[in-house]
Amino acid sequence: MNGPTVVWYLCVAAFLFFTGALGVLIRRSPLIVLLSLELMLNGSNLALIAFARFHGRGDGQIFALTVMAVAASEVVVGLGLIVAMARRNLDLDVDKLRTLRG
Amino acid sequence: MIVADAGNVLVWVVWVVAAFACISSGIAVVSFSNPFFSALSLIGNLASLAVLYLLLSAEFVAAAQVLVYAGAVMVMFLFVIAYLGGQADAPWAGGPSWQALGAVAASSALLVEVIVVIGLKTGGRLSHAAPTDYFFGSPSTIGRLFLTDHLLAFEITSIVLLVAAVGGVILGSHSRAQPPLAEAER
Amino acid sequence: MIVAAWICLFAPLGAALAITLAGQRLGRRGAGFLATTGVGVSFVAAVVSFVGLLGDSPDDRSHPSTLWRWLTAGPYHFDLRILVDPLSIMMMLIVAGVGCLIVGYSIGYMDGDDEERRYFAYMALFVFSMLLLVQGGNLLMLLAGWGLVGLSSYLLIGFWHERPSAIAAAKKAFVMNAIGDATMALALFLVIQRTGSLDFEKVFSQAGSFGPWAANLIALGLLGGAVAKSAQLPLQTWLPDAMEGPTPVSALIHAATMVTAGVYLIVRTSPLFEAAPHVQELAAGLGAATILLAGLIALVQTDIKRVIAYSTMSQIGYMFLAAGLGAYANAMFHLMTHAFFKALLFMAAGIVIHALTGEQDLRKMGGLRPLMPLTFWAFLIGSLALAGMPPFSGFFSKDSILAAALANGGWYGYLLWAAGMVGTFLTGLYAFRMLFMAFWGEPSAFVREHLHHLEGGLVGWTLAVPVGVLAVLAAVGGFLQFAGIWTPVSNWLDPVAPSLVDASGMQEAVSSIVAVLLGLAGIGVAWWIYGARRASAPRPLVLLERKFWFDEVYDALFYRPAVLLSQGLLNGVERPLVFGSVGELAGSVRDLGLGARRLQTGLVRTYALAIAASLAVVTVVFVVVR
Fold it and tell me: How confident is the model at residue B178 (pLDDT cuts 50, 70, 90)?
């Protein structure tokens, strides 16, 4: 294979994943949280594709496509929730949404 | 490890540019306070990822990424952001809370661990990729795999999409909408 | 005969259980009849056993019978065992006979009380316990009966539990009896250590080989139990307070049977006492001291029941005197006649109290003779028997005790004889003081206002018949033994407890004459002051009114330190350590919960952080381990 080996791609994927994780943990707006979640999913997609290339089989790509489809569905539901929250005039702040507090 | 010759250099250059764009747009998604800018950064991220996929001979996936992810999902995001008015949310304001510090610590720790694992534990096993043929990432390969080895995943994914669509309709329908809360109840 | 003895033992227990289990389904009077029938069956069975025993030859009259092996502890074993022999039969007849009469009397006396059923269950339980005590075939059964009678006494003294004075009296009786129980138990431990068994035959046959130190301790322990149960010096303070219980209870338990258990104990374990002669002399001395003490205090009592209670104490002193001298048959004979006339006195007093709607103060009474003639005659017979006037029963029994003291000789015997004689004078004085104060003269104002005649019908009969029977017994019961000439009682008990002293005819005569004269003198003084009102009663000494300060001394010596100790322990040990540790435990668990609660912030971010952090840790572990 020309260019960087699989390891380099994996590093990028890891970086993307943990940046997304950081965003999920730190940000307060649920919209940004969803976006960070997408980032994480993309990071894992990259890892999958890299390994597919490494093994020379297409299974990883199938997996990545399935992940993409599921991510799309999840975004639909998540955005629907956010829109419903906004319609009820709830604060779009995950720190304020704490009715499940013990 | 780096074998630099004429054919390689182009690949390397493209890789560096794409990787850099990927990483910086990722950081940008997390850092911007305006969700609109975050969404745009994510689109940039998706684009650079598509380039990386092409470098990895996954052509169909790259195309799907751009069409589906950047074209449909992100557009949906931008619609919702436009509808909501994009409330600003300053993550780094007010000094780092213990939550933020903890998060940074945890994620960086994990990152380091993963890199250590990849670097140390695998030895040299990840250095030689298997040879691939011309049809490696083509739609025909993907299609054949979907309809033979991974038929179950294919069907279940379609059901998931159906459920999501139904859920989206229900969540958005006006008749089920609960009345907005008064100011005092928020 | 053995079967009859077992029936005698268990019939009252069966009655008690039946009353308890029947509960509300049994009428109140039905409970009374059931209890009386149970004790009545017991008496009949005792008579049958007695007849059977009569048929045996005098040397062959000891019949033990075992139901099963009750306790096994290593090399020791103790059986559920009764012994039918002359001594136990005598006690069985007294307990069951007088018990039956008194339980029957209770049907009328307790009529209308809300908790009659509980009363009759307790009374039946008591009769069973007392029978267990006297029929016990080894010291363990005796101790079991001993404890059970203490329990029944506690339950019955405190029967009217709404009265704080009754509850306090019950506790006092129980605690003082417990002291006796403790010393008895220690004595029994020594016995087991020396002989390995508690059966009467084994223990008594080895009594001579205990060695002086052990023999004295054993006898002292048994004497302690006897003194506590029989309310002798120094453990006598509970008996007057025990009069808080209903009058039939006082009649049965605190006159006829339970308090005489101490005498029975000494007579039964006479070989053990004979192995420790000094302790036996001590018993006689305590008896004599109690005669005088109780007689003196009785002179100033104003409650009719308290006078009779102190009289009981004094008369049991005579029995201890006899047992201490070795005149066992005399002691048992006096026990029997005392049961008759003392129960008679109590029951007659009960009729008076009932007629005056609960009033017990002698100063308020007066002139009851024309209003309650039959009761007066019963009281008179009882008082004459108590004072030892011939031909009533007390004369025969008490005088033979005094003669035995003379026969013992030595300075000690004469001292005891003198004490007994002084006691006779005091007895006549206080008994007739009570009689004259209550019955003589004009009816007092209180009597005229409050007297109500008891109704006829069942209540009247149940009150009258037992009193009548006991009056007859008190009158003629003495003819069972006459001083050296006609001695069926001594002959009967001889195989079990042979007498150590034998009074000559001259000693008997001297004692009788002096005693009768002194008794008449006492009656005369009482007549002079209280009957004919020729002179006024002298001011009572504070010493006597305060009962020789015994209660105060015991309070200061024992009760206060115990209270202080327990309060100190409560504040110093129980509160901080026990409550504190439990509280600490609960508090720390609660704090733990509160701390864990802080994890549940409700924030998604916190949970996600938790996941990420734990993932980091797990990864490190995974990597390092693999």
Answer: low
pLDDT tens-digit profile of C364-382?
888 888 888 888 999 999 9
- Nearest chain B residue to A99 by CA distance is B186
The residue in chain B having the minimum alpha-carbon distance to the alpha carbon of residue C604 is B99
Chain C hits for B98, CB-CB cut-off 8 Å, are: none
- Cβ-based contacts under 8 A for chains B and C: 28
pLDDT of residue C322: 92
Dihedrals phi, psi of B180, to nearest 5 degrees:
-65, 145
B39-48, C356-365, C438-447 — which one is most confidently predicted on average?
B39-48
| Phi then psi dihedrals of residue C434, to 5 deg | -60, -45
Contact A72 B161 (CB under 8 A): yes
Residue C182: predicted pLDDT:
94
pLDDT 10s digits, C182-199: 999 999 999 998 888 888
Which residue in C613, C615, C623 is closest to B117 by CB distance?
A: C623
Residue B100's pLDDT is 78
Rounded to whole angstroms, the Cα distance separating B75 from C195 reads 106
Q: Nearest CA to B106 among A36, A11, C605, A25? A: A25
For C207-217, how does the pLDDT look when each residue is reduced to its tens digit (9 = 90+)? 888 888 888 99
DSSP letters spanning B147-167? HTTTHHHHHHHHHHHHHHHHH
Which range is least confidently modeled, C21-30, C36-45, C266-275?
Answer: C21-30
Q: How far apart are CA C104 and CA C85, in angstroms?
A: 28
Residue B185 has pLDDT above 60, yes or no: no
Note the pTM of the prediction, 2 decimals.
0.68
The pLDDT of residue B186 is: 47
Interchain contact, C612 vs B103, CB within 8 Å: yes
| Of C340, C276, C270, C355, nearest in space to C95 by CA | C340
Rounded to 5°, angle at Cα C570 from C564 and C572: 95
SS3 letters across A13-73: HHHHHHHHHHHHHHCCCHHHHHHHHHHHHHHHHHHHHHHHHHHCCCHHHHHHHHHHHHHHH
Nearest to C226 by CA among C275, C282, C277: C282
Contact call for A14 and B91, based on CB within 8 A: no
Tell me, yes or no, if A44 comes closer than 8 A to chain B by beta carbon. no
Q: Quick one: pLDDT at residue C536?
A: 73
Interchain proximity A72–B60, CB inside 8 Å: no
3-state secondary structure (DSSP) of residue C481: coil
Handedness of CA C539, C542, C548, C554 (dihedral sign): positive
Q: What is the DSSP letter of B130?
A: P
By C-alpha distance, which of C312, C295, C510 is closest to C402? C510
For residue C543, pLDDT over 60 is answered with: yes
The CATH number of the structural domain formed by A6-87 is: 1.10.287.3510
**HEC secondary structure over C402-415:** HHHHHHHCHHHHHH
Beta carbons within 8 Å of C494's beta carbon, 6+ residues apart? C58, C329
**pLDDT level of residue B5 (50, 70, 90 thresholds):** low
Q: Which residue has the tokens 């599921």?
A: A70
The amino acid at C335: L
Mention every residue, 6+ apart, whose C-beta is less than 8 A from residue C517.
Answer: none
Residue C596, min C-alpha distance to chain A (Å):
9
Domains of chain C, by residue range, sit at 551-625
User: Taking CB atoms and an 8 Å limit, are C603 and A21 in contact across chains?
Assistant: no
CA distance C591 to chain B (A): 23
Structure tokens at B143: 């299609």
Which chains lie within 8 Å of chain A at 3 or more CB pairs, if any?
A: B, C
Cα atoms in the Cβ-side hemisphere of radius 13 Å centred on C413: 17
What contacts C556, CB < 8 A, 6 or more positions away? none
ipTM of the complex: 0.90
